[in-house]
Design goal:
Elements (H helix, E strand, L loop, with lengths): L20 H11 L11 E5 L2 E4 L4 E4 L2 H4 L8 H13 L10 H14 L6 E5 L2 H14 L12 E5 L8 H6 L3 H4 L9 E4 L4 H7 L4 E6 L2 E2 L5 E2 L2 H14 L2 E5 L23 E4 L10 E5 L2 H4 L15 H16 L2 H16 L5 E7 L2 E6 L4 H10 L2 E2 L1 E4 L2 E4 L7 H19 L17
Parallel strand pairs: 3-15, 5-6, 5-7, 7-10, 10-11
Antiparallel strand pairs: 1-2, 2-3, 4-12, 8-9, 11-12, 13-14, 14-17, 16-17
Helix pairs in contact: 3-11, 4-11, 12-14, 13-14
Length: 434
Amino acid sequence: MTEETALEPASAATLVDTAQGKEWLQRYSNAVLGVFGTPQRVLVRGAGCHVWDADGKQYLDLLGGIAVNALGHAHPFVTSVISSQLATLGHVSNFFTSPTQVALAEKLLSLAGAGEGSKVFFANSGTEAVEAAFKLARRNNTSLQDSHPRTRILALEGGFHGRTMGALALTAKQAYREPFEPLPGGVEHLPCNDIAALEAALDESVAAVVLEPIQGEAGVRPLSISYLQKARELTTKVGALLILDEVQTGVGRTGRWFAHQASGITPDAMTLAKGLGGGFPIGALVTFGSEVSSLLTPGQHGTTFGGNPVATAAALATLHALEAGSVLQNANDVGSYLRSKLAGVSGVSEVRGEGLLIGFDLDGDYAPDAVTEALTQRFIINAPTPHTLRLAPPLILTRTQAQSFLDALPAILETARNSGAAGNNAAQTTEASE
């Protein structure tokens, strides 16, 4: 075949056979490394806030690929931009740049209100963005006042930052950490939202403090505005970096472009991913100001695929669609509606979150069974803890769609509560899949 020979257009469905769900799951167990447990369903198609499985069943997706599909599935504008860009220029390596890479960096800096000298590094995922942030922290290694090395990085109990070695060092949960120790050293974990503990730990030996404005994997637990503001004050005072992990909370998820904007602070660096590409893999590290941006110099970090033309085009298209459709306002409106109604559901003991990142606690440890029963009722949700359910749907979710879940939820919880199998579905929790 010559370069000029055109291939017939084909969807992914034409490249595989049409086996049904049970057969696909058997083939999965024979071929795919089992780090995610057993998949709940085999999904083959999506449109808007709905997906369909290999057996033809339709589901309302209230998880959005864990806060990834900000515009839902198969968004026509985003898919057309991706197709057009791939047909024009797909990959060039970072010996070169492309207009989409430059334009996306400029757009992110504008949305973040980043000042002169601020920069963006593009990666392929949230974990990779956190790895870049970890290295940035390591480069902030000398106290300006006494020339002593900064060897400590502070993070929070309950935090989740990824599964590669640097990101895992920042992640607090021992069950994730222990099988892979020794991890990169110097990381200490403080109690969440404890200002006194932060004050006691912060001095000029600290290179950086790494925080999630809302801890998603801990059950959607927000840091208080006062805590974020104090973290900014104290890190500035001792010369430590304040790095905010907005992988899950960024790009409109909370009804603002970035969750930390509610506190009025400006971080030294911020990590992004998940919703940024509207379903296409991309991550980013944003550095604020020339001093922080100069910490990583040529040759000190890199990536083969990061910032490629297709990924950056996908992100530009996603940001454009979010703006043009007033989607952030919808996230605020529908999110507020969901939270207010969830608070009145029997069996729900607490509701937390902002925008369309919502966690709600149950009156017992039967959240994994509720996930299973919700699937039976054709709703996709997840259980980050045994007693907590999480919603992170597409930001285009309508109030009518939200109400359909609210109408079904009491029966879902009643069935789960009475199932007698609470705790037996650990593979349904985010920890097995994130």
